[in-house]
Amino acid sequence: MDSYRTILKPTAPILFKERKSKFFGYCFPVNDEEQVKQYIASLKNEYPTANHVCYAWQIGTTKKTYRANDDGEPNNSAGMPIYGQLQSYDVTNTLVAVVRIFGGTKLGVGGLITAYKETAKIALEQAQIITKIIKQQFKIEFEYAEMDVVMRIVKKHQLEIISQDLHLKCSMVIAVKKSDFRRTLNLFKTQHKLKIKTDQ
Protein backbone atom coordinates (compact mmCIF):
# COMPACT_ATOMS: atom_id res chain seq x y z
CA MET A 1 0.00 0.00 0.00
CA ASP A 2 1.45 3.33 -1.13
CA SER A 3 -1.22 5.59 0.32
CA TYR A 4 -3.67 6.09 3.16
CA ARG A 5 -6.71 8.24 3.85
CA THR A 6 -6.84 10.75 6.68
CA ILE A 7 -8.44 14.10 7.47
CA LEU A 8 -6.84 17.40 6.54
CA LYS A 9 -7.71 19.43 9.66
CA PRO A 10 -9.95 19.49 12.75
CA THR A 11 -13.65 19.88 12.01
CA ALA A 12 -16.12 22.34 13.47
CA PRO A 13 -18.51 20.65 15.93
CA ILE A 14 -21.71 19.11 14.60
CA LEU A 15 -24.80 18.63 16.77
CA PHE A 16 -27.02 15.56 16.83
CA LYS A 17 -30.08 15.52 19.13
CA GLU A 18 -31.87 12.47 20.46
CA ARG A 19 -34.68 12.74 23.04
CA LYS A 20 -33.28 15.95 24.54
CA SER A 21 -29.73 14.57 24.80
CA LYS A 22 -27.22 16.58 22.79
CA PHE A 23 -24.31 14.88 21.01
CA PHE A 24 -21.49 17.11 19.72
CA GLY A 25 -19.24 15.39 17.17
CA TYR A 26 -15.64 16.31 16.38
CA CYS A 27 -12.85 14.95 14.13
CA PHE A 28 -9.15 15.64 14.67
CA PRO A 29 -6.03 14.59 12.75
CA VAL A 30 -3.61 12.86 15.18
CA ASN A 31 -0.22 11.18 14.95
CA ASP A 32 0.13 9.77 18.47
CA GLU A 33 -1.74 9.10 21.71
CA GLU A 34 -0.39 12.26 23.33
CA GLN A 35 -2.32 14.37 20.82
CA VAL A 36 -5.44 12.29 21.56
CA LYS A 37 -5.12 13.03 25.30
CA GLN A 38 -4.72 16.75 24.63
CA TYR A 39 -7.81 16.94 22.42
CA ILE A 40 -9.96 14.96 24.89
CA ALA A 41 -8.76 17.11 27.82
CA SER A 42 -9.57 20.22 25.79
CA LEU A 43 -13.13 18.99 25.09
CA LYS A 44 -13.69 18.18 28.77
CA ASN A 45 -12.62 21.73 29.64
CA GLU A 46 -14.87 23.17 26.95
CA TYR A 47 -17.90 21.16 28.14
CA PRO A 48 -17.67 21.05 31.95
CA THR A 49 -21.32 19.94 32.21
CA ALA A 50 -20.91 17.05 29.75
CA ASN A 51 -21.79 13.62 31.12
CA HIS A 52 -19.54 11.73 28.72
CA VAL A 53 -16.78 12.44 26.21
CA CYS A 54 -16.59 9.21 24.20
CA TYR A 55 -14.15 8.64 21.38
CA ALA A 56 -12.27 6.30 19.07
CA TRP A 57 -9.05 6.74 17.17
CA GLN A 58 -6.96 4.89 14.63
CA ILE A 59 -3.25 5.64 14.11
CA GLY A 60 -0.69 4.19 11.72
CA THR A 61 -0.31 3.54 8.02
CA THR A 62 1.13 0.08 7.36
CA LYS A 63 0.52 -1.18 10.90
CA LYS A 64 -2.59 0.39 12.45
CA THR A 65 -3.52 0.63 16.11
CA TYR A 66 -6.83 1.80 17.50
CA ARG A 67 -8.70 2.42 20.73
CA ALA A 68 -12.35 2.96 21.60
CA ASN A 69 -13.46 4.59 24.86
CA ASP A 70 -17.01 4.55 26.28
CA ASP A 71 -16.21 7.07 29.07
CA GLY A 72 -18.79 5.63 31.47
CA GLU A 73 -21.48 4.73 28.95
CA PRO A 74 -22.52 1.01 28.88
CA ASN A 75 -19.82 -1.26 27.40
CA ASN A 76 -19.42 -0.95 23.61
CA SER A 77 -22.35 1.47 23.31
CA ALA A 78 -20.23 4.51 22.34
CA GLY A 79 -16.56 3.94 21.51
CA MET A 80 -17.04 0.97 19.20
CA PRO A 81 -19.89 2.54 17.16
CA ILE A 82 -17.61 5.56 16.68
CA TYR A 83 -14.71 3.29 15.68
CA GLY A 84 -17.00 1.53 13.21
CA GLN A 85 -17.39 4.83 11.37
CA LEU A 86 -13.62 5.33 11.22
CA GLN A 87 -13.50 1.95 9.49
CA SER A 88 -16.42 2.78 7.19
CA TYR A 89 -14.68 5.95 6.01
CA ASP A 90 -11.34 4.08 5.84
CA VAL A 91 -9.38 6.82 7.62
CA THR A 92 -6.37 6.58 9.89
CA ASN A 93 -4.36 9.07 11.99
CA THR A 94 -7.79 10.32 12.99
CA LEU A 95 -9.65 10.85 16.27
CA VAL A 96 -13.44 11.11 16.40
CA ALA A 97 -14.88 12.35 19.71
CA VAL A 98 -18.51 12.74 20.76
CA VAL A 99 -19.50 14.90 23.71
CA ARG A 100 -22.85 13.95 25.27
CA ILE A 101 -24.95 16.27 27.40
CA PHE A 102 -27.71 14.22 29.01
CA GLY A 103 -31.23 15.49 28.39
CA GLY A 104 -33.03 13.61 31.17
CA THR A 105 -34.34 10.65 29.14
CA LYS A 106 -32.42 7.38 29.05
CA LEU A 107 -31.84 6.10 25.52
CA GLY A 108 -31.03 2.47 26.29
CA VAL A 109 -28.03 0.66 24.82
CA GLY A 110 -29.58 0.43 21.34
CA GLY A 111 -30.43 4.13 21.35
CA LEU A 112 -26.93 5.06 22.50
CA ILE A 113 -25.29 2.93 19.80
CA THR A 114 -27.43 4.62 17.13
CA ALA A 115 -26.80 8.12 18.49
CA TYR A 116 -23.01 7.76 18.77
CA LYS A 117 -22.76 6.06 15.39
CA GLU A 118 -24.85 8.74 13.69
CA THR A 119 -22.94 11.61 15.34
CA ALA A 120 -19.60 10.11 14.28
CA LYS A 121 -20.92 9.58 10.74
CA ILE A 122 -22.10 13.19 10.39
CA ALA A 123 -18.81 14.49 11.84
CA LEU A 124 -16.79 12.45 9.32
CA GLU A 125 -19.08 13.60 6.49
CA GLN A 126 -18.08 17.17 7.38
CA ALA A 127 -14.37 16.34 7.43
CA GLN A 128 -12.10 16.99 4.47
CA ILE A 129 -10.70 13.52 3.76
CA ILE A 130 -7.43 13.43 1.82
CA THR A 131 -5.16 10.72 0.45
CA LYS A 132 -1.51 10.83 1.47
CA ILE A 133 1.34 8.97 -0.22
CA ILE A 134 3.59 6.87 2.03
CA LYS A 135 7.21 7.75 1.30
CA GLN A 136 10.52 6.40 2.52
CA GLN A 137 13.79 8.30 2.63
CA PHE A 138 17.42 7.39 2.10
CA LYS A 139 20.66 9.35 2.11
CA ILE A 140 23.42 9.30 -0.51
CA GLU A 141 26.95 10.43 0.31
CA PHE A 142 29.42 11.08 -2.52
CA GLU A 143 32.39 13.09 -3.71
CA TYR A 144 31.72 16.26 -5.68
CA ALA A 145 33.12 14.51 -8.78
CA GLU A 146 30.11 12.16 -8.72
CA MET A 147 27.58 15.01 -8.82
CA ASP A 148 26.72 14.54 -12.51
CA VAL A 149 26.04 10.82 -12.04
CA VAL A 150 23.73 11.45 -9.08
CA MET A 151 21.84 14.32 -10.70
CA ARG A 152 21.35 12.36 -13.92
CA ILE A 153 19.58 9.57 -11.97
CA VAL A 154 17.54 12.10 -9.94
CA LYS A 155 16.35 13.95 -13.05
CA LYS A 156 15.71 10.86 -15.18
CA HIS A 157 13.48 9.31 -12.51
CA GLN A 158 12.05 12.63 -11.22
CA LEU A 159 13.08 11.89 -7.64
CA GLU A 160 12.15 14.19 -4.76
CA ILE A 161 15.14 15.77 -3.00
CA ILE A 162 14.35 16.48 0.66
CA SER A 163 17.69 18.12 1.47
CA GLN A 164 21.16 18.41 -0.02
CA ASP A 165 24.63 19.50 1.03
CA LEU A 166 26.81 20.09 -2.01
CA HIS A 167 30.42 20.79 -1.08
CA LEU A 168 33.59 18.72 -1.56
CA LYS A 169 31.85 16.00 0.43
CA CYS A 170 28.26 15.90 -0.77
CA SER A 171 25.09 14.36 0.64
CA MET A 172 21.49 14.23 -0.49
CA VAL A 173 18.32 12.92 1.15
CA ILE A 174 15.76 11.52 -1.30
CA ALA A 175 12.13 10.47 -0.70
CA VAL A 176 10.32 7.92 -2.86
CA LYS A 177 7.03 6.05 -2.81
CA LYS A 178 7.25 3.02 -0.58
CA SER A 179 6.70 0.59 -3.45
CA ASP A 180 9.54 2.21 -5.46
CA PHE A 181 12.02 2.20 -2.56
CA ARG A 182 14.04 -0.94 -3.39
CA ARG A 183 14.09 -0.26 -7.12
CA THR A 184 15.32 3.31 -6.58
CA LEU A 185 18.02 2.20 -4.12
CA ASN A 186 19.30 -0.23 -6.75
CA LEU A 187 19.68 2.60 -9.28
CA PHE A 188 22.23 4.20 -6.97
CA LYS A 189 23.81 0.96 -5.76
CA THR A 190 25.08 0.26 -9.28
CA GLN A 191 27.29 3.35 -8.86
CA HIS A 192 30.04 1.98 -6.64
CA LYS A 193 31.45 5.35 -5.56
CA LEU A 194 28.21 6.33 -3.82
CA LYS A 195 27.54 5.55 -0.15
CA ILE A 196 23.89 4.86 0.67
CA LYS A 197 22.32 5.05 4.13
CA THR A 198 18.81 3.89 5.02
CA ASP A 199 16.89 3.49 8.29
CA GLN A 200 16.39 -0.19 7.55
UniProtKB/TrEMBL annotation:
Residues 19-124 form the Impact N-terminal domain. Gene3D superfamilies: Impact, N-terminal domain (3.30.230.30). InterPro entries: Impact, Impact_N, Impact_N_sf, Ribosomal_Su5_D2-typ_SF. Pfam families: Impact_N. Transmembrane segments: none annotated. Belongs to the IMPACT family. PANTHER family: IMPACT FAMILY MEMBER YIGZ (PTHR16301:SF20), IMPACT-RELATED (PTHR16301). This is Uncharacterized protein, YigZ family. It comes from Maribacter sedimenticola. The lineage of its organism: Bacteria, Pseudomonadati, Bacteroidota, Flavobacteriia, Flavobacteriales.
